[in-house]
Design goal:
This protein has eleven helices and two strands; from the N terminus they run H-H-H-H-H-H-H-H-H-E-E-H-H. With 313 residues, it is mainly alpha-helical. It folds into three domains: 160 residues, no CATH class; 82 residues; 56 residues, no CATH class. Strands 1-2 form a two-stranded antiparallel sheet. Helix 3 packs across helix 7. The longest helix has 21 residues. The protein starts with 7 loop residues before the first helix and ends in an 11-residue tail after the last helix.
Amino acid sequence: MAKGQFTEAQNSHIHSFFTDFVKEMDKGVSGHILTQWKQTKASSILDSLHFAVLDEKLSKQTLFEMIVRKFTNYRNHVYLKSPEAQTSSGSSNIRKTNPLLKFSATTTGRQLFATENHDAITSAAKQRGLDTKNKNAAAYQNILKERWDALSGADQAGWNEQAETIAGDVSKNQAEFVPAIQSALRELCLGTFLGPAEMVLFYAFRETAGGDLIAGTIHGHSEHNRLKFGGSAEELQSGYGKAWSEFTDSVIPRPVILNPSIPRNSSGQPVFPSIDLNNVPIGDLRALLSDYFNHCWEYTAHRGSTVEATTIP
């Protein structure tokens, strides 16, 4: 086997992983995570029977790097240059099946384990690299695999459960939503999927801690247009945004208050608390009335009313 080449059987074995490689890229995996995937697969390939007999002129580390390069070359020269990977202008690497909206919280239990144990794994990988004269990248993946596989099924399940909890971090997802959806609309409108398109998205959700409404609009444009529907930001808010905010505020429930400052009856109606007016300072009474009225308006809104309450519960 000449340097830079593999046997036909070895090439076929490497190529058999390209389908899974494409699936990873189609899911939006890139950067460091994609590099880790390539290195993990390269280690697995080297451990297979197809590589049981190696060219004496090539070290295992060299072969490892050659396999990783195979994946990289496939991505650059095949995947990104396929018709599906181009926009209408041919200048972008947008994938036809790339998910249009992806939050960073989509991590796995193994990835979380690697993050939490990064220093220990890195230290062990450096030592193994010195012992075997291999580069740390391959050693790191081997150490990670060994330590993950050494965990009991219950421990692995625990890490996976933690990863699922992180994936359900609504506050973090909300913070990432606007830039993520901006990117999604931009890809949709450029022409690859629908032809040149124009889109505007009205969105609204409640802040997780206090329940305040977060509402706005996001625009997507084709390469032929940069004008925004609705005019200026002030005109858009006046013509559409205000009505949208009022509507969504009336239909999106607020977070449940486990210990409300104003008691509720069995129907959820606010009930003015029993107090001794002779012993309540006027300032405290004013604050209590304000809080009570706020609860009344909130209760009315949750029932879907579009007008102010005419009676106090």
